[in-house]
Amino acid sequence: MIGASQLALTDPLPRAGSAANFAELEELYHLHGARLKSIAFHITGNRQDAEDAVQETFLKLHRALHGFQGQSSIGTWLCRIVINVCYDIARHRRREAAAPPDGPAPNQQIPLRVALGDALGRIHPKHRMVFLLFEVEGLRHSEIAAILEIPEGTSKAWLFEAKKELKRLLTETRP
Amino acid sequence: MIFQCQDLDRALALPELMPDARAHARDCARCAGQLFLWGEISRLAPALHQEWESPALWPRIQAALAADSPPCAAARRPIPIRRWALAAAAVLTLALALSNPWRSAPRDRQFLTQDALREVQQSEAAYSRSIDRLSALAGPSIEESPTALAALYREKLLVLDSAIADLKQNVEGNRYNVYLQGQLASLYREKQRTLREWMENANRN
Q1: Of the ranges A87-91, A145-149, B12-16, B142-146, which is most confident?
Q2: Is the CB of residue A130 less than 8 Å from the CB of residue A79?
Q3: Which residue of chain B comes nearest to A60, CA vs CA?
Q4: Residue A140 CB partners (closer than 8 Å, separation 6+)
Q5: Using an 8 Å Cβ cutoff, are B104 and B177 in contact?
Q6: Alpha carbons B61 and B58: distance in angstroms, whole number
Q7: Mean pLDDT across A35-63
Q8: A135: nearest CB among B45, B58, B64
């Protein structure tokens, strides 16, 4: 797991022009790429789409930096972009695929960790996102609030709801 | 408080109720299972973080960024209005100076002496050498730069070169004309100033 302290979410965003430099973007990629890939994987469901989303995120970052005034932090901004890109990809994939979004209930014999992963895909998307950012990626509620543009209290409430839903789903499949 | 099974969800939200919930769970297998599951969800969640090697991803992003970038970032930079105004003023002054019939007529009648002409020609040669040196230094960067500012300077220098060539032709036929010699000198000065300005601008950037 990546700890919150490693995420450098509070790093100030480099000014437009200087960050347009590829070397600086590469540094940002090495600093944030792993987390972005993981978040993207959980939304899109596969590595190829996750990598495509990370690529698109950096393109959007590069284009947007010219007008950026430095009012946010780079980590917050990257997370927000990757989440939006992933939702676009996921919407596109849903249109392509005929399969329903909810799969079958997880098998009762599978390990709890795998069952948790399956259950995570079945809870409310907003709650899932907060759970993913807080419990899986180790972000703080203040950071999640900035990324999702919600109050910190809402982030805490959605996390609780996420865990309640997960507990219910895991109880149903693992009595 | 007498803790009951239906209080469990409330206890999970309120840490102060947790001691009661744990005490209740000692005698209630169902609630014990729920409490265990609650803890396990947070304990196992970090393991859901996905990490894999993608050595080709950054090179791919870099290629996409390069393809997405304009040829030169400086080309997008807006040219300060002051520069446009200066260039326009220079061209206008030049045009007026070359086409003003009221001033040129009386001055045509002023003639240089042989000594004065020699001095003028020496000054012209000095200017010419100075400009050649400046052109050698500034020329390549003006020619190669893709920026709109460089295009403006190229255009201005073309106008000046063309005016200098015309005036030199006129001077050849009337070498003692003070006004024409003065105009030629002012064009040389303008070209020198333009080249210096470009070099200062290039050094600043």
Answers
A1: A145-149
A2: no
A3: B65
A4: A4, A134
A5: no
A6: 5
A7: 93
A8: B45
Comparing alpha-carbon positions, the chain A residue that sits nearest to B54 is A51
Question: What is the distance between the alpha carbons of residues B74 and B202, in angstroms, rounded to a whole number?
Answer: 12
| CB count in 10 Å sphere of residue B198 | 24
Tens of pLDDT, residue by residue over B50-69, are: 999 999 999 999 888 888 76
Query: How many CB pairs below 8 A link A and B?
Result: 98
Smallest CA–CA distance, residue A71 to chain B, in Å, is 22
CB-CB contact of B147 with B75 (8 Å)? yes
Three-state SS at B196: helix
| Residue B49 main-chain phi, psi, to 5 deg | -60, 130
- Rounded CA separation B134/B66 (Å): 35
The phi, psi pair for B51, rounded to 5°, reads: -135, 130
**Which residue stretches of B100-177 are H helix?**
101-107, 114-144, 148-173
What is the ipTM for the molecules in this complex?
0.80
Q: Is this structure's pTM higher than 0.80?
A: no
Closest chain A residue to B38, measured at CA = A167
The answer to whether B60 contacts A63, with C-beta atoms less than 8 Å apart, is no
**Over the stretch A92-122, which tens digit does the pLDDT of each residue have?**
877 666 544 444 454 455 688 889 999 999 9
